[in-house]
Design a protein that fits this description.
mainly alpha, 2 strands, 3% strand, single chain, two-stranded antiparallel ribbon
Length: 202
Amino acid sequence: PQMVVTMIRHHGDCVPVQAASYGALGWLCAGQSGPDEEGRLRRDTIMGAGALPLIIAGMRAHPSHAAVQQTGCHALSALARGQVQAIVEAMAAAGALAAVVTGMQEHRDRTGVQENGCIALGTICCERHMGGNVFGVDESVSQAAASVGALAAMVNSLRAMKGGATLDRCSSALRLFVGWGEGSAARRASALQLGAEPAWLK
């Protein structure tokens, strides 16, 4: 992971390097090659190497490049997986949600950006669970999501989709965002007011 982060740091102007590196980080911290504990350790290593601000900076620097936005969203969602409070709080504070929403707005016709963007927003903003208890969405994350219009971005993305597996995955991300604990009723009502189909929230 450190080598990949070094590549991102030293090749900020090279779009192919940025896109490929974000994709690699997403794969590494998702734990796809072993148990989830391995993924957690990789996420810790990647965060410790300073990847988060580099990913966000790269997405901001290359807004017109769909590959950067798509793989950047994937990397952010993979880092947020596991619902580690410190990581999602750091993401909210660093502007990750704004970067995702901007990427989705810039590439409304790119399915990969829309799907990965929805999944990133749902993963970053989902409720934390521990021992069967629902702890809700952290307030700082909730405020950051509201300030950048994250829910509207997700609903607009879903409304433009024609169905199929992509719609299913993105509606699952919307349900994660809305949640089931405290505050979920208000988020559900907001989603419906923005034009969400009730079926997406079931």
